[in-house]
Write a structure and sequence with these properties.
The structure is a homodimer.
Chain A lengths: L2 H13 L5 H11 L2 H14 L10 H13 L3 E4 L7 H4 L7 E6 L8 E6 L5 H16 L3 E4 L5 H9 L4 E5 L12 H10 L1 E4 L11 H12 L2 E5 L6 H11 L3 E5 L9 H8 L3 E2 L3 H8 L25 H10 L5 E2 H8 L3 H13 L3 E4 L3 E4 L1
Helix pairs in contact in A: 1-3, 1-4, 2-3, 3-15, 6-7, 6-12, 9-10, 13-14, 13-15
């Protein structure tokens, strides 16, 4: 198969219904490639209890590829050699990224900087200076192009090196007032999207975006964040991936410092300067970052499952997320068989995958 | 010997030249009591190379005792049963304290609260509320009656329970504007001094005062402190004694937060509320606090030393402080003999004891 055909098949598989980052990797591994996986898809979905054909429409995929080209963007598949190795360590790393700008910025040591959208003026200035200091030392500052701290992180690092990861398609700016900054990041830095062009950002896309920000980076720095904010989710994802979690402290009297102070109480490193951050990540080599210990990638679903196995595993599932390891233990079946049943259920739209290698009925 | 005679002998030994907290305990242990130790003192000092008689004048001691009584104060000797056990764990715990007020406050769980003399108004208010919250939960808030955070710590806990430890004699207020507060602490809380009445506070007295604040307490909380401040010394002493070190964070843009943020970076627990502090110390029982592992208390100087031992140990000493353990190892002599030589040298005014069980030539 020609290279364009391979990439077409990959994208078509990724855009097919119920194929997520985890099942994409499992399908490619099991069938030796995206084209063969596409052929097997209807059958697998049927075994999982799905009824309708699930493969993405060819014309839709052709249209998306043309649109990406027209936008001056390009695809980076997880199968590609230059896919960022740190991001690749996530079980649920994006199967494909859409990029605009200088992808060499992903090869530098990356630091995520995130924080409150409604940050104080002082914290905004501080974030901008911190970001400038980091970029000046040859690091890429990764953030999410949101209002507040994200915006300042990108502005501070725009000359030195910044990557913006967005929850929408690569052609959509959110918030709208950041359209100009997003264009600047694409032209002078690197703009990264996981969703196809034209996708409006929805609430469920933001945690996906956050996992890319944390996953690309050796560490995540939080500057001013409220408890229960998206920034803390990014920090949690960074911690789960074995990356450094850092936070800029604030007075207990400042409600906007509560999230950061809470993170520090829970073990995040208090940082006050670019030097503090560099001191934390300098000893870390990308290859030395510990892999997350979930069971997603553990056993590829190389074997067919029997009806007994299907029944038993499905019987153990419910609306409450449970670890795949736990399912394997409780069912007593081979890991590969359990993974196969889960893959079939997912493709049939009956399974949902959650953080930390847990699954539930959809 | 009658009880007053015993206490007179103890105080006379403590007030004798070159007798410090460590040598006091060693002398009492070796000679079975203060009176016998007093008898042995001139001889020991002579062996250490001292020339003049070193015993405190009897009339001076009588005068001090009368003055302490007149001030409504009393002595608490390290040998007394109700000496605070946590403080007693310090090798260099005061041989005698002079107290005014309710000494039962020392028997409650104590928390030290210290910080900047020039603290911000916001930090002062915060310290006062924090202290009030702690005292309201049955803890005694210990501080140093200095300006700023110390003052607020005492004010906040004046109804609930506070102990003030001062560097001067019990009858001297420093700073003078805190005279009224010091009187309130003595009347409604507990006032503690190590120096005899009439002693004006000198720079060298403050670290001694700080060790008592840290030593009485299960943990030390620092609220706003500059790097290299006395508050950080208290925190360091608390850490060396195996107690909890806690700090209230602040913005990196606030220079007065630098000391606290630095402490947190070095491992102190970030605290934002009385609940945070109580959570830290609740699991700690006074008896469970780990003893410092210095060699001060290790081998009491029960044996006489030979001239060879005297020469060898003295030969190993210089102006740079060295650990007693190291001296024992390098000299090859028995620990008790080395301790005896050091005691003799100290009584002769030729030895200085430093933090962490280290000694140098005076």
């Amino acid at each position: 198969m020609s290279e364009p055909d391979v990439r077409f098949a990959r994208l078509r598989l990724i855009r097919s219904a119920n194929v997520g980052p985890v099942s994409y990797m499992q399908l490619v591994a099991r069938f030796g490639g995206a084209a063969a996986a596409l052929d097997a898809l209807p059958d697998l979905a049927r075994r999982g209890g799905g009824r309708t054909p699930v493969i993405a429409d060819e014309r839709m995929v052709v249209r998306e590829i043309a649109q990406v080209e027209k936008l001056g963007a390009r695809y980076l598949f997880r199968d590609d050699a230059d896919y960022p190795p740190l991001l690749d360590q996530l079980d649920n790393a994006p199967a494909a990224l859409i990029l605009r700008g200088d992808s060499a910025l992903m090869a530098r040591p990356c630091i995520a900087m995130v924080g409150a959208r409604n940050a104080s003026a002082a914290a905004c200035r501080f974030a901008r200076q911190l970001s400038q200091g980091l970029a000046g030392q040859g690091l890429t500052v990764v953030s999410g192009l949101a209002r507040g701290i994200d915006t300042q992180a990108h502005i501070g690092a725009i000359d030195g090196g910044t990557a913006g990861v967005i929850a929408s398609g690569i052609d959509i700016a959110f918030p709208p007032e950041n359209a100009e900054l997003q264009e600047a990041v694409a032209n002078r830095g690197l703009l990264i999207a996981e969703q196809p062009p034209g996708t409006e950002p929805r609430a469920r896309h933001f945690p996906y975006r956050n996992r890319i920000i944390a996953g690309l980076s050796l560490g995540t720095v939080v500057v001013e964040a409220a408890p229960k904010s998206g920034s803390l989710i990014t920090a949690r994802l960074a911690g789960e991936a074995g990356r450094e979690v850092m936070a800029v402290p604030g007075s207990p009297l400042d409600p906007r410092a509560q999230g950061c102070n809470m993170l520090i109480r829970e073990g995040a490193t208090l940082v006050q300067s670019a030097a503090d951050i560099i001191e934390m990540i300098r000893p870390i080599d990308a290859r030395a970052v510990r892999s997350p210990s979930s069971s997603f990638g553990g056993a590829p679903p190389a074997a067919d499952a029997s009806d007994v196995e299907r029944r038993n595993v499905a019987g153990l599932l419910g609306p409450v997320p449970v670890a795949v390891d736990e399912l394997i233990r409780q069912s007593g079946h081979a890991p590969a068989a359990v993974q196969t049943v889960l893959l079939e259920l997912e493709l049939a739209g009956r399974l949902e995958r959650h953080a930390g290698g847990r699954v539930s009925l959809a």
